[in-house]
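ok new one. same drill as before - structure tokens go in, u give me an amino acid for every spot. 187 of them this time. try not to just spam alanines like last time pls lmao
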């Protein structure tokens, strides 16, 4: 009879450990999936940018530095995507976002460009892509939050290190100034 009790306790402990391990694997996979969703949207953005730049270049040929900045920021973001951490990627993506804003600022100076259907279509696609990137970042950060919380709660925290699980980084803004609301003045 004692052997059955010992075997039952061992089986319960084994099922408990298996449950914890499988939960951590599931959460880690969700983080990886969410990261992949960010990659998909960033790839779409990278594919749209050259078309947007070429369309705007035709109207604003003398704004060469703006286009060089976008091209360089895009190349840096792609490089950070290949080898960077979430923090490095976030920084590179934030630079690219700023460069894209400058393209749209240049475009505002050219009414005939704003009237171009190609430009409007590209601008709408890029805006939709930026919205999807923002959603993918929020989804990723939510999964990172769930995963990191699981790693830090008892009894999982006592076992996670032994199973080789480590915390993940959030995809955050690099510049704290981007967190503040812009001031709007009509005077």
């Amino acid at each position: 009879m004692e052997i059955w009790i010992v075997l039952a306790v061992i089986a319960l402990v084994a099922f408990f450990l298996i449950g914890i391990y499988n939960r951590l694997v599931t959460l880690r996979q969700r983080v990886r999936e969410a990261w992949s969703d960010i990659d998909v949207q960033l790839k779409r953005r990278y594919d749209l940018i050259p078309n947007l730049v070429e369309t705007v270049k035709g109207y604003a040929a003398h704004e060469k530095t703006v286009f060089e900045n976008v091209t360089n920021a895009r190349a840096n973001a792609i490089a950070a995507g290949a080898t960077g951490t979430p923090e490095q990627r976030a920084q590179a993506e934030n630079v690219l976002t700023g460069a894209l804003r400058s393209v749209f600022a240049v475009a505002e100076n050219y009414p005939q460009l704003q009237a171009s259907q190609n430009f409007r279509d590209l601008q709408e696609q890029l805006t939709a892509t930026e919205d999807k990137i923002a959603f993918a970042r929020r989804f990723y950060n939510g999964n990172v939050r769930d995963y990191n919380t699981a790693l830090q709660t008892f009894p999982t925290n006592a076992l996670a290190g032994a199973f080789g699980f480590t915390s993940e980084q959030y995809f955050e803004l690099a510049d704290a100034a981007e967190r503040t609301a812009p001031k709007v003045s009509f005077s």
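The chain is about 80% helix and 0% strand. and btw The chain has one domain: 2-166.
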